[in-house]
Design goal:
This protein is α+β, with helices and mostly antiparallel strands. Helices cover about 15% and strands about 40% of the residues. The chain has five helices and 13 strands. The strands form three sheets. It has a seven-stranded antiparallel sheet with strand order 10-1-9-4-11-13-12. Strands 2, 3, 5 and 8 form a four-stranded mixed sheet that branches. Helix 1 packs across helix 2. The radius of gyration is 18 Å and the shape is globular.
């Protein structure tokens, strides 16, 4: 059976937030990293800006990936308020202080109910379909030396460890998740995982996920079917002496 290369990402942070479709002041999070979130993370590492929306959308549509939940999350809710009149038109961005419009141009107090995943650890195996504007080597180099600060979902969700941890060869993303060993501090066990429909066992439970974003218009623009299953990762690697 033919194999393909997958980069292995480890997403570990005190808080992560992988946005779902939001209504009014509630800002929910998916239970695991999303297609649009991973595309935005990589685009930031590559140094792409908002005007590169078409390129980021093309990258998003070419992503082939699976997700393993090595440490389950608990939901953390933040009652968030911001006095937009005090913020003014300059605000902090990944590039530093910039003069921006949008929300920072408004006035009054903004009240939001933001949801986060606390204490989660995810392993992501990341490959590419045809049509990607970059290759895996370019993505790997960008994650090693990112052009911009990287966050796990929302700005402020700082990674606790390096994101890129290796590479694995496998016929599909489910097998790639199984081939990558658990952290040496973890016990060997079956854990929950998600993979794209057709990229792993057909008996996985199907879920519809709304996580495709049109980065040109900055709006959600479609859903996909993922399958949820259990996977038993490879044995932990021996600790280095």
């Amino acid at each position: 059976m033919a194999t393909t290369s997958f980069l292995v990402l480890r997403l570990d942070a005190p808080m992560q937030s992988w946005g779902r479709v939001a209504m009014d002041p509630v800002r929910p999070t998916h239970s695991h990293p999303t297609r649009s979130g991973l595309a935005g993370l990589i685009a930031s590492a590559l140094g792409w800006r908002y005007r590169d929306g078409a390129r980021t959308t093309a990258l998003q549509d070419a992503l082939r990936f699976g997700i393993r939940e090595d440490r389950p999350a608990r939901i953390l809710r933040d009652y968030h308020t911001a006095d937009l009149g005090r913020i003014g038109r300059e605000s902090w961005t990944r590039w530093g202080m910039e003069r921006r419009g949008g929300g920072t141009a408004a006035s009054g107090t903004q009240i939001l109910d933001k949801h986060y995943l606390a204490d989660a650890v995810f392993v992501v195996v990341l490959g590419l379909h045809d049509g990607s504007p970059v290759d895996l080597d370019e993505i790997a180099q960008a994650l090693r030396t990112p052009a911009r600060p990287l966050f796990l979902g929302r700005k402020g969700c700082l990674p606790a460890t390096p994101i890129l941890v290796g590479e694995v060869q496998a016929p599909n993303s489910f097998e790639a998740l199984a081939a990558w060993p658990t952290d040496s501090r973890s016990s060997i066990r079956e854990v929950q995982c998600w993979y794209q429909d057709g990229d792993g066992p057909a008996e996985g439970e199907p879920e519809e996920i709304w996580d495709r974003r049109d980065f040109v218009t900055d709006r959600f623009a479609g859903s996909r079917i993922v399958r949820r299953h259990r996977v038993r990762p490879a044995a932990p690697r021996p600790a280095e002496e």
